[in-house]
Write a structure and sequence with these properties.
By secondary structure, the protein is an alpha/beta fold. The protein is built from 13 helices and 11 strands. Helix 5 crosses helix 6 (140-149). It binds iron/sulfur cluster.
């Protein structure tokens, strides 16, 4: 009997990684999908906030959904604690359009995957990467860098573009048939959609949505502001907090986050520890969190901005509640109506 070939695949649940896994299955390779949770996954935010564009459609984890559709097991691996200091704050290959260290990110995930491959006796690793699809990480030199620096070298197979790349060990050893792999390149998804039709894969997320906060310019701006004022004294909770709300910097060490709706109120309630809270009792109101040690002026500004985003925004004055540790109180303020003042503080 011939040996069962076993491979690990990075599975985001997007179309490319789903197809790569399906192509491996079609070659009788036993697949285990790995999904890395970085702390910057949009999925974390969606899990807490739900599906806000379509509340009737509940949130789902696309990696688990893809694994269920393909009938392959998925392991979710939490790398938050290492990922932030080692990858996001210190990328050897730099950032993409936002704060996305895509090349270092791929290297980091594939190093972890290689360790699992070696520990558990898998034969090789594959990904859904497509040559030329992404400007930073999927050009030829970075694809080579990722293979090299992850320690996988030619044990890393990219089934969707394999015939445009040098022969890998799985092909050379006949574990997979190179002729049944693909030569897809570029940003168009046309060939992937044809392949999805061929395999009858109909349920997959739209690529435009992305799955990571780091390339997003709004998120990147908040992260740069955070790092400029707090240095590298950052926790995964701090990063989670950057994903929601309107952010305003009141002074060097004081900033406020104002929720945008009830879902974000609930989200922010998870992060009140060590932060001051501001809200309005008399009208529907956002929850505002204030970080740092606010002065009396900072607190008044936080109350005025919170009142502006409450339903009492057109009142002459609004009573605003605040709580800071054991202390709490109320300030009656004129809601902030000055857009120029607001924009000057907005991060
Ligand atoms: S977009 Fe985010 S998760 Fe994807 S490779 Fe870049 S940094 Fe990593």
């Amino acid at each position: 009997m011939s040996e069962q070939i076993r491979a690990l695949g990075l599975l985001s649940g997007g179309l490319d990684s789903t197809l790569a896994a399906r192509v491996m299955q079609a070659q009788n390779v036993e697949v285990l999908g790995l999904h890395f949770s970085t702390g910057f996954c949009l999925a974390d935010r969606h899990r807490i906030l739900g599906n806000r564009s379509n509340p009737d459609k509940p949130y789902r984890n696309e990696a688990l959904r893809a694994g269920a559709d393909l009938k392959i097991p998925i392991e979710i691996i939490d790398i938050k604690d290492e990922y932030l200091p080692e990858v996001v704050l210190n990328p050897k290959f730099g950032y993409g359009s936002g704060m996305n260290p895509c090349i270092d990110c791929r290297i980091f995930m594939l190093q972890k995957t290689r360790e699992i491959m070696e520990e558990r006796g898998y034969h090789f690793v594959f990904t859904g990467e497509v040559l030329g699809q992404r400007p930073m990480s999927q050009r030829r030199p970075p694809l080579d860098d990722v293979a090299e620096e992850s320690g996988l070298g030619r044990l890393l197979l990219r089934p969707l573009s394999a015939r445009l790349l040098p022969e890998s060990i799985p092909e050379e050893r006949g574990w997979v048939d190179r002729e049944k792999l693909f030569n897809i390149s570029g940003r168009s998804r046309k060939k992937q959609m044809e392949l999805a039709n061929h395999f009858k894969i109909i349920d997959y997320p739209q690529p435009a949505g992305g799955c990571c906060s780091l390339p997003d310019e709004n998120y990147a701006r908040k992260l740069r502001d955070f790092l400029a004022h707090r240095g590298t004294d950052v926790t995964p909770d701090d990063m989670m907090l950057l994903k929601v709300g309107r952010h305003f910097r009141l002074s060097g060490d004081v900033k406020m986050v104002v929720s945008r709706d009830q879902g974000e109120n609930t989200y922010l309630e998870r992060f009140t520890q060590g932060r001051s809270e501001v809200w309005v009792d008399d009208f529907p109101s956002p929850l505002t969190l204030v970080e740092g040690q606010p002065t009396a002026i900072d607190l008044e500004t936080a109350c005025r901005i919170t009142a502006r985003y409450s339903d009492g925004r057109h009142e002459r004055t609004v009573p605003v509640r605040w709580r800071s540790g054991e202390s709490e109180g109320q300030l009656t303020v004129v809601p902030c109506q000055n857009d120029t003042e607001l924009e000057a503080l907005r991060i």
